[in-house]
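Posting this for the archive.
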Amino acid sequence: MTDYFGSCLCGNAKFKVQGKFDGFYLCHCQHCQKDTGSAHAANLFSKSAKLTWLTGSDSVTSFTLPGTRHKRSFCKFCGSALPSIHEVGLLAIPAGCLDTQVSMSPTAHIFTSSKAVWDRGLCDVPEFEGLPE
């Protein structure tokens, strides 16, 4: 069994996930764009992995968009996205909150019909290893 560790940006909430991931999706729906303030969300999903809060579980809060299955958990101090358990027993882990490297590549892009116009052709955009001067 594999253990993954993660935390929020301020370090208040820390967790461990034990088990395997069933899927890794890059979601381009409008809800995920609003959640992340970016082009897409990158979430790992598991039906069997176990989530354990190591510290700061009291600083984790959740929001479910009324009338949808869209749920987001986050640190109430720094706002970082954190794992959440959905009503169907599915564990969703934002990939960026993991401190342990994940060797799994994304399974698929989903909801690409909502893809941001500026999120197309990004392979032609210049890359910098740090902040450009």
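The chain has one domain: 3-115. The helical segments are 30-36.
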